[in-house]
Amino acid sequence: MADGMMPLxxxxxxxxSYGGVRALQDVQFTADRGCIHALLGENGAGKSTxxxxxxxxxxxxxxxxxxxxxxxAFSSPYAANAAGVACIFQELSLLPDLTVADNIAITNPPxxxxxxxxxxxxxxxxxxxxxxxxxxIHPMAPVGELPLSRRQIVEIAxxxxxxxxxxxxxxxxxxxxxxxxxxxxxxxxxxxxEGLAIIYISHxxxxxxxxxxxCTVFRNGRFVESFKAGTKSDEAIVELMIGRxxxxxxxxxxxxxxxxxxxxxxxxxxxGNELKGIDLEVRPGEVVGLGGLDGQGQRQLLLALxxxxxxxxxxxxxxxxxxxxxxxxxxxxxxxxMALIPEDRxxxxxxxxxxxxxxxxxxxxxQFSRFGIVDRAAEDREIExxxxxxxxxxxxxxxPVTALSGGNQQKVVIGKWLMTxxxxxxxxxxxxxIDVGTKQEFYQLLxxxxxxxxxxxxxSTDYDELVGCCxxxxxxxxxxxxxxxxxxxxxxxxxxxxxxxxxxxxSAPHSTNAIAGVVA
Amino acid sequence: xxxxxxxxxxxxxxxxxxxxxxxxRGILLAILIFVxxxxxxxxxxxxxxxxxxxxxxANKGTLLALVAMAQTIPVLTGGLxxxxxxxxxxxxxxxxxxxxxxxxxxxxxxxxxxxxxxLCGTINGVIVVYGRLQPIIVTLATxxxxxxxxxxxxxxxxxxxxxxxxxxxxxxxFNIPVSVMVLVAVVLFIWIPYKRTILGRAAFAIGSxxxxxxxxxxxxxxxxxxxxxxxxxxxxxxxxxxxFLTYSGAAKVEIGNDYTLNSIxxxxxxxxxxxxxxxxxxxxxxxxxxxxxxxxxxxxFDINPVLQPLFVGVVLLLAVCVGSLRLLRIKNxxxxxx
Lengths: 520, 338
Fold this sequence. Notes:
Structural class of chain A: alpha/beta
Number of helices of chain A: 18
Strand order of the largest sheet of chain A: 6-9-10-3-11-12
Order of helices and strands of chain B: HHHHHHHHEEHHHHHHHH
Oligomer: heterodimer
Radius of gyration of chain A: 25 Å
Number of helices of chain B: 16
Largest interface: A-B, 43 and 37 residues
Largest sheet of chain B: 2 strands, antiparallel
Shape of chain B: globular
Shape of chain A: globular
Strand order of the largest sheet of chain B: 1-2
Structural class of chain B: mainly alpha
Distance between the termini of chain B: 40 Å
Number of strands of chain B: 2
Distance between the termini of chain A: 35 Å
Helix content of chain B: over 70%
Strand content of chain B: under 5%
């Protein structure tokens, strides 16, 4: 803003590691009063970590944060709130059992004689809701009963209720309708004119173009560049976001014959607002990637295929036969032969206190038991084979799985499902938080599985992996398959462009030339 | 405005009423069950519901009601307090030693007993919060300690209490049992003000989603400690009432355990979620009275009182089933196991 004026927020030399993973490395960030500052970067660029530091959720390893020239170090979100920082998180921070009004005024309710004044709080909530376009939301409604888009509006109202100096929106408009977004934007511009510093994180480039005064790009946990909005083209910004050297860690793939009958076929798969008519076909030996930004329905699609969603419509055919998926137990049965390798390895993948052996054999238990009794010799043979195949580094299979490194734990999760001898493997971001070496082994395993005729659906938030591993990538946007990239058209640039829904979807899916043409 | 129906003030007010009633449905269900079975009890009683019978029922029910109220607040935070029954015993034994003498001494004794209850609860809360331990284990351990202290105070049943006060506290005035007035006073002077403080609301917030509460800047540590402290205080009020009813103190382990377990059942019947975030001590009062009335029903129906646990169990299961109907709405099966 005005020259010579000190920025309201200054963050310098910030570094943060989680375990061995460097989330942020020596980054800087400033925000001025009366400015909307867009923070841009790919999945995993470190944006969310920076926001968490600023809002007191995590502490930085090094670096300094100052507001109004004062050094601050927030020990909790409570302290950050008190210093005038309010954040609208991507994962909503609402309390589902409390009413809308209770949520909005959770830390600073209006009081009378020391007690919360419910009537005044009702009016307070009503005023704030009206301001952010939530006049259809009743202040006494329990938040848990509201649809996601209304919850997001409540979350915004809640942040404003704290009278912040610095307002952070982390993908805060992802579930809103166009009309809601317009109203929220109007409000943000008004707040900017009132002198707030607003930090805006969004993957929607047109939103950034409409709203931002300043932009900062992060990549791989490092600061890349700050610039005035409008001084760079969308293309140039995408270049800044992805411009990292390409490491050839992926095994060569054999070309696939396309005329085999698909082993998995879905038509019109839909579930609530999160899946909107998914048609896909996967042939044996094919690796089909799911691309797109985080949270566009990829996880729901995998869960739907695995039978974990109630009230799903559409049809699923496996091996040419229509199946009614009733749950994971049936999905893994030999008739269907599906395996889902979950993303949340600690909760959905492993039974942490139990042994490596128990974890490996649990899903496949039926295959080496007779009349409900486990054949230990058969179990041992299978386990030995899988430990060797995946080169799991464990001190014997009877130790607890917690004693293993993250990468080896993930191998156990994969091994557990390979033991069921699946025909179709669904992978939900399986390389998140594991080291490069294990990743490389994993890519080779993937290629080998495909060679043996297993069909693979692979969701990854890492575009490199989609480029390196997949025969085809379905890029999801807002619950449906936005575009399909095939063969040479799977490039990082095309993936990012398709994920941001940048170029208009002029071509029918599968028409790779048209896509490449639009992006170039 | 585009949405004429929703911005219409009359309709909005109606909506407010609907939300209010819907938020009280747990309490309303407990009241309904209570009215039904207490009505059945009065109808089967040969002499009808005389003031005397109501007074006796109230006195018996109040003890469990107070202990259940004490249980409710930690449960609202998503915790559990297994020491409520033993704080109840400890304060009973203490009261049988010090609630005596002239009005001044008696008054000091009562305050002392309540402070001890508050202290016991605060200790629970501090260990839970700063030890980062599971409430169930912490309070299991402290309950054994509190029981031990009760035995030290009163190795043999006995002691005494200010007789005039005890007489007042166990009688009825204008056909209203004093014990019921005590319950109303606790609701008016402890529960309602508590609910309307930031820390009281924080208890609900923590039980609803501790992570979201943290992200929202809710003072989690203070709110949890206060929840356990209040629980101790309410248990000590129950301990005082027990002393007034029995004119003595006794450290009997089975009584403490019985009250602890029954308090959890009463909380559940009263519509408070064991996951936290939803509920009220008012529901727990009726939950407690439901449990006590089931016992009385067996007498009027001439069923062996030994079978009481069986019937209480059936009532408890029915109440829990109604409470879990919401699970039928879950669409993502993975969410069922979170």
